[in-house]
Amino acid sequence: MNASTVTATRETVSRHTRTFLDRHASLMPTFAAVLIFAVLLIGAQIHFGTFLTPLNMSALLLDNAYLVILAVGMTFVIVTGGIDLSVGSVMALTGIWCADLLASGHSAAVVVPLIILAGAAIGLLIGVLVQYFDVQPFIASLAGLFLARGLAFVVSLDSIRVENESVLWLQTTRWRLGEWYITPTGVLALSVALIGAFVMQFTRFGRTVYAVGGNEQSARLMGLDVARTKVAVYVISGVCAGLAGLVLTAYSGAGYPRNGIGTELDVIAAVVIGGTLLTGGTGYVLGSLIGVLVFGTIKTVISFMGAEQAWTRIIIGLMLLMFIVVQRAIVVRAERRR
Amino acid sequence: MTKVVKHRLFWPAFSLVALIVLNTVVRPQFMKITVRDGELYGALIDILRNSAPLMLVALGMTIVIATRGIDLSVGAVMAVSGAVTLTIIDGAEDPGSTSTVLVAMAVGTGVALLLGAWNGFLVAVLDIQPIVATLVLMLAGRGVALLITDGFITTVNSEPLEYVSTGYLFALPFALFISVAAITAISLVERRTALGVLTEAVGINPEASRLAGVRSRGITFGAYVLSGTLAGVAGIIYSSNIRAADANAAGEFIELYAILAVVLGGTSLVGGKFTVAGTVIGVFIIQTLKSTMLFLGVPSAQSPVFFAAVVIIVVLIQSPRVHRIARGLTGGMRSRNLSAHSDAEVAA
Amino acid sequence: MDAQPLLELTGATVYFGADAALDGVDFRLFPGEVHSLMGENGAGKSTLIKAITGALPLSAGVLRLDGQVVRFGSPHDAQEVGVRSVYQEIDLLPNLSVAENISLGVEPRRFGMIDWRQMRDRAGDVLADLGLDIDPASVLGRHSLAVQQLVAIARAISTDVRVLVLDEPTSSLDTDECAELFRIIEDLKQRGVAIIFVSHFLDQVYEISDRVTVLRDGKLVGEYLTRELLRIDLVQAMLGRSAESLRTRPRLRVADGSSEEPFLSARAVTVGSRISGADIDLMEGEVLGVAGLLGSGRTELARALTGIDRLDGGIIRIQGSDEPIGNPRAAISLGVVYSSENRRTEGIVGELSVQENITLALQAERGVLRRISPARQRELAMSWIDALDIRPPDPDRPAGTLSGGNQQKVLLARLLALSPRLLVLDEPTRGIDVGAKVEVQNLVGELADNGLSVMFISAELEEVLRVGNRVAILLDGRVVDTVPSDDLTPDALTALVARPEPVG
């Protein structure tokens, strides 16, 4: 190869890089999350020797199924530029209500739709406040947080055991492939993530979600249905929280009104680590899935090390910090180039 | 009359008075203040005393919100300062000595100040969105507090420490004096120096302020330092009250109550114009509500339902759409013009 | 013209509160014409456009399309029947791809799913139509403002457009891009599209439009054929007063650049890639006009000289001292002040009162602790409101509610309150009405007569010539020439500015 072909190749490469960046610059944070995930797994494997086992990896999904579901809903909201602080409390409310209804003898076929509807209703309330009454998402979802948390304690002040077969089935069933296994809750979580990703990428609704996050005013002038979209994302987040309540109840075999305190923060952190910008407009549902897995892996690593669980949040906090500083640096560089 | 109603503090003050009247009607002893050993007691005094931590946090939050920011980490900072202070007292040879306690409190507050400076650094120097920047500490802070207390709830018996929350000075609770000192200091600085208007300028338009020669970064940084420091003091009062450092429960939800107090007081979350008096009223509304619910026998765990209702009512009252509907009910033509106007604003 | 108008508005009235922003205006638009809408700021142009495009409901009046009465409840309704608009502030989505920005709302779909490939192809076709060679799949925000503006136009014409509203479409375009835009407009005309064209540039109005409708204070002044309307008559119609009063006053003295020591002298100033080795001298009592195309580094030079952006190289010497100016504060303390071209985002603090806005910089300079007493603030504000004729003369009114021209005056007052030595004005007359423009120009002259140095940047070359004693010509981030303005005609200056290669 002579010098000129080398330059030519180099030029082609740089042109391709440029085209790629022009098209997919917003994917970079998600790639970073994937990279971190891989490094975490490999690092843990080297350190512990027995980390990357099928059993461990299967448990990772099982343990974090409810977080995945919450993160999918949160991604919709954050991409519009909003935020939903209510998810942890709504999950607790639907979880305890589910346990309570089941304990009083209702059939799961009635209870499950009912609690999902309850989640949707709180989401609707938040969405309506945000869209039609100009309440900041932060405050509106804060009202949702208080409401759901209080209602959870109204349902019951103590935890309620779940005996219902079909709900427990979600958790106890193990579909196996060799040493790998997956539970119905895991399937549920993955399906939610896939459906979410599909909706965001391939439907007009999904693109409107991005449009609203990019510039609400412009989206409206373009004739997009901004109002319905903004309400809908909170309803979606509420539905996801309702579903997460079911999954968590199945997972722990009980409803507990103190469940999920601070979970909204974990979810937001996971979504941001997965590459979604809190300013709205960019983000990926599958990125959030990775974000949750990173979160879960850190938790597992810490319990492997036998360290204080307090470290989980410190590390997640630091990781969040790293992410936002890097994102900030990228933005600054882009501005300087202009 | 309309001028009074239009005043920005009218609705907050009206709500507080209404709440107090309601309480008095339901339980006449609400207003009763008794004197015991030259010290005042009663439901109102309790409200003044118990509101101190929230008051401090909400004041800091007001200034941070005025700069277009938000500080989610206040609860975590409270946990850390409480943990630091009590761990020092616990480890000291003489937990009852005033000087030990003073040193411990100074160190606790100092750590809180540093944490505030950390937030300020992220927001003012690195230009990171406040909600994200303070989320870092909100997540990590409690973890740090847990590490300091080794995962246990550190309890101490120390008279000087207890004095902070339960002691009396000139017949009034000592904690009240801390609140009053903070309110006075902040109001004075806002009124007597140009800091108030410069803070508002930075909150409304940071870039324009910078070009006009305002030290935007310094002002923003200072707001977070103030918020952190006040949260630190609040954390000490809290731990003094329960005589323990509880890394999980200290300042739980306080960022939410503080933000609620600020909004109740009439300061907009988008930054800019702020009112210290409004925040003070907001804090009293929240504290009175809490006291009311306690009296009504509502389990404290369920009280959030009522706060949710309050938040919703307040934001609805402040909402332009509700104003429009209300005007539509009272006047014909005029309201139509107004609605055309606000549509124009939406379109503009 | 006897044909039936494509679009006709009769008795259009829009109330904002108690004030009529539009008062019984008639407007008609024929297919295949370019119709300019003229008027000072606040004359009701934007309101009229918004009423036509469904962004604003009419309080009274009737809108007819093809003779049929229509009511648009939202921009969407208007777009459905082919009434599209491109606003001055680009209303696209920087986070989405170019193709999506063109197709959003009418994306091609297959089985309810968005068909990305077809969407890109379609966008590619429209862009090719416009002679724009960019990757349809690229993210919009990575392109320049000019390209984004053209994409906005691409979006508007990608569907079946019958009425196209262009509100200040040329404000972010350079000469070549403008020519390209006009070619596209001609093309659309041929296809029978009716175009409403709004621009502050009279030249462009005369170049492109067939007819002109003039508004003043929300009322219709008249409708004219462009070729029958003299410029002076158009200006008079817009202002409603004799154009004689608009003449700038003659300058008292012209600085003689050779003998004096310059107040500010910059050598080899370099900032990123936008300013490379620029030299500039500013005498005391001189107005230095800066002329250059968009992208020539006009704003970047101003920001570098006033300490807003860090220098990557070069020296700025102010009165013989070459201490580096690190930030706006340092510049202000040396008497160098800057007024940004972005009045709304970098100038006015909207919710603060006029008084607080005027005293802001002075207060910042004095420091937090030395507060200007309220009485003194009031006195200062009143004196500037009086001196600059800021209207309404209410110091307590939020500055954001003032008109563009008055906001500009508030900003000038803020800077002048600092008693500066050098005033750097970046597009101080952009987007303000003609009357206020002349007032600002005259004010600059007066200030210079009083010994102040002024650097005056404007995209309107005529204005630069009229205001400046000398004109610095900026090309690709370098000052290629500085010419006394008496030696130049607008045409000669245009030629200098548009020069492809620096000479000499």
From TrEMBL, chain A:
InterPro entries: ABC_transp_permease. It is a multi-pass membrane protein. It comes from the Bacteria. CDD domains: TM_PBP1_transp_AraH_like. Keywords: Cell membrane, Membrane, Transmembrane, Transmembrane helix. The keyword Transmembrane helix applies. GO terms for molecular function: transmembrane transporter activity. One of its GO terms (cellular component) is plasma membrane. It is found in: Cell membrane. This is Sugar ABC transporter permease YjfF. It comes from Nocardioides agri.
From TrEMBL, chain B:
Keywords: Cell membrane, Membrane, Transmembrane, Transmembrane helix. The chain crosses the membrane at residues 9-27, 47-65, 72-89, 101-124, 131-148, 168-189, 219-238, 258-286, 293-317. It is found in: Cell membrane. It holds the Pfam family BPD_transp_2. CDD domains: TM_PBP1_transp_AraH_like. InterPro entries: ABC_transp_permease (IPR001851). GO terms for cellular component: plasma membrane. It is a multi-pass membrane protein. Its main location: membrane. GO terms for molecular function: transmembrane transporter activity. The keyword Transmembrane applies. This is ABC transporter permease.
From TrEMBL, chain C:
InterPro entries: AAA+_ATPase (IPR003593), ABC_carbohydrate_import_ATPase (IPR050107), ABC_transporter-like_ATP-bd (IPR003439), ABC_transporter-like_CS (IPR017871), P-loop_NTPase (IPR027417). The keyword ATP-binding applies. CDD domains: ABC_Carb_Monos_I, ABC_Carb_Monos_II. GO terms for molecular function: ATP binding; ATP hydrolysis activity. Keywords: ATP-binding, Nucleotide-binding, Repeat, Transport. SUPFAM superfamilies: P-loop containing nucleoside triphosphate hydrolases (SSF52540). Residues 7-242, 252-501 form the ABC transporter domain. The keyword Cell membrane does not apply. PANTHER family: CARBOHYDRATE TRANSPORT ATP-BINDING PROTEIN MG119-RELATED, GALACTOFURANOSE TRANSPORTER ATP-BINDING PROTEIN YTFR. This is ATP-binding cassette domain-containing protein. It comes from Nocardioides agri.
